[in-house]
Amino acid sequence: MEESHNTHNEQGESHSNKSETITLKKDTLWKVGTFVFAALFVISLFTAGFGFKDGGTTGQVVAPTNPSAPTPSKVQVSLDDDAVQGDKNAPVTIVEFSDYQCPFCGRFYSETLGQIEDNYVKTGKVKLVFRDFPLNSIHPQAQKAAEAAECAKEAGGNDEAYWNYHNKLFENQGALDVASLKKYAADLGLNAAKFNDCLDSGKKASEVAKDLADGQKYGVQGTPSFFINGQMISGAQPYSNFQSAIDAALAA
User: Fold this and answer.
1) Nearest Cα to 76, choosing from 188, 245, 227?
2) If you placed Cys at 128, which of 6, 85, 205, 236 could pair as Cys (CB 3.0 to 4.6 Å)?
3) Considering the entire predicted model, what is its pTM?
């Protein structure tokens, strides 16, 4: 962050026949400078001035990679073989690239996802696909959590097992260590031996890496990022923004 500092030089002249320079005392100059700086600081709090940029309330955790090309207005996004929630023939597809340790992803889960599910997924208008985008440099537990969700799908044998485990992870973002990941699988009644072997072996690491690579190819630079019929939305936006984008996709 950059901060601008303004320095003021005070100079005065008398209106007499003789030109004289008035010299301010050091303590007076100090008081004036302190007052000016304090006033500017108060103004900056209300204007976000002096180079401070407010990230806003929606937020987005930025990825450490920079795609070589700008993201087009619409992207043909592959669903890969990732779990689908909702009617697979729904006219609108939302693909989310997300990170289980990302606080803004957690905010989307807790504040917005439920409304999308109630109003669009359960009515057959939208299907949801979750693809992994772990920001390993800042979220050291995100990679293994992503692998665990993939292992849950395999151990449970269906997409429902994946989504149940997905929910468990977002409801317990503060505890994503390996021991906790295994406990969540047991809590959900998954085949513990199959799940633990999958997680310990790193079997799903390549699947997570593919999601990450695809996201970068599509122009994802942070989490969470969404593609609504190929139209990108970045950050944990309010439900109304998703509603507008979904309705536009339905009307197209």
Assistant:
1) 227
2) 85
3) 0.73
Distance CA 241, CA 226 (A): 12
Cβ-based burial of 149 (10 A; exposed 0-12, middle 13-18, buried ≥19) = buried
Which domains, from first to last, does the chain contain? 1-54 (no CATH), 61-251 (3.40.30.10)
Write out the DSSP string of 71-138: PPSB-----TT--EES-TT-SEEEEEEE-TT-HHHHHHIIIIIHHHIIIIITTTSEEEEEEE---TTT
Contact at 8 Å (CB) between 245 and 231?
A: yes
CA angle 92, 55, 239 (to 5 degrees): 30
Closest CA to 212 of 110, 117, 98, 111: 98
pLDDT, one tens digit per residue, over 166-221 is 999 999 999 999 999 999 999 999 999 999 999 999 999 999 999 999 999 999 99
Structure tokens at 55: 């990230």
Residue 7, number of CB atoms within 10 A of its CB: 7
* Token code pair at residue 204: 């799903």
DSSP state for residue 171 in the 8-state scheme: T
Pick from 193, 165, 191: nearest CA to 180: 165
